[in-house]
Amino acid sequence: MTRPRWRVLAARYRDGLFGDFGGTFILLAQAPLIGWLCTVVWGSIERDTPALYFVLCLTAVWFGCINACREIVKERRIHERERLFGVRGRDEVLSKAAVLAGIGAVQVVLLQGTVEWQLQLRGPMGLEILALFGASLAGTGLGLTVSALASTQERAVFAVPLLLLPQILFSELAIPDTLYSDVVAAAEKVMPVHWAFRVFEESAAVEPSWLSVAGSLAVLFAMACALILLATLAIVPRREVVT
C-alpha cells in the first residue's frame, strides 16, 4: 500500500530534524529548565498558585509557536518545487504538525514532570499534561500559520511575541474577570491559554466540575485543529518562477 504523501514528508522532516542532535537537545532541554525555574520561584512558598498554572500554560503555547514558526517558510523553495509533482499544502502542514506534536508532547511531559517532582500540584498530573499538550498543539497551529504567511524566517520569529502578548493581556493575570469589558471577555475566549488554564484551575478545586474540564479540553483541541487548518489555508502559491 502506498503511504500518504504527508507521512512520507513527515518521515523526511523527522529525520532531518533529529539529525541535528545539538538543535534537538536544546529544543527539549529548555522544558525541564523552565520547569526547574518554576520550582525555584514557587518552591519558596511550597504550594501551587493560579499564577503558576498560567505560566505553565503560556509556556506550552510558546513551545508550540516557537517550534513551528520557521518550519514552512525556511523550506518554501523546496515546497514550491514539490507542488509541481502534486504535493499539496495540506501534506506540508500535516507533516510538520505531526512531528512537532510529538516534540511538543515530550516538552510538556518534561515541563510538568519537573514541576510535579518538586511541588506536587493539586490536580491530576495526566489531566494537566493533556491540557498543556492541547496548548502546545494550538501554539503549533499559530506558528505554522505565521510561517506560511511570512516572507522570511526572521519576520516569522519577530511575529511570535505579537501572538503571545495577547495571551497575557486578555487574561485574569492582567485584569480581574470582574472588571472585564465585553470586548476583553470575548477576546479571552479565543486565547488557547485561557482554556488550558481553566483545566488547571478546575481540576485543582476542592470539588472540581469534570464536565467543565472536559468542555475546556474539547474547546482547546478544537481550537488547535482549527489553527492547523488555518495554516493549511494560509499556504498560497507564490508568483515566483521556480528554477
Write up what this structure looks like:
The protein is mostly helical and 243 residues long. It has one domain. The chain has helices at 5-19, 21-42, 50-68, 76-83, 89-119, 125-149, 153-169, 182-188, 192-203, 210-234. Helix 1 (5-19) crosses helix 5 and helix 5 (89-119) packs antiparallel against helix 6. It is globular and about 55 Å long. The two termini are 33 Å apart.
Helices and strands in order, then pairings?
Elements: H1 5-19, H2 21-42, H3 50-68, H4 76-83, H5 89-119, H6 125-149, H7 153-169, H8 182-188, H9 192-203, H10 210-234
Helix pairs in contact: 1-5, 2-3, 2-5, 3-5, 3-6, 3-7, 3-9, 5-6, 5-10, 6-7, 6-9, 6-10, 9-10
- Alpha-beta classification: mainly alpha
Q: What overall geometry do the principal axes of the alpha carbons give?
A: globular
Radius of gyration: 19 Å
Number of helices: 10
Q: How many beta-strand segments?
A: 0
What share of residues are in beta strands? Answer: under 5%
* Main β sheet profile: none
The parts where pLDDT drops under 50 for at least 5 residues are 238-243
Helical residue percent band? over 70%
Overall average residue pLDDT: 86
Could you say how many structural domains there are in total? 1
Q: What are the secondary-structure elements, in order, as H or E?
A: HHHHHHHHHH
Q: What distance lies between the first and last C-alpha atoms, to the nearest angstrom?
A: 33 Å
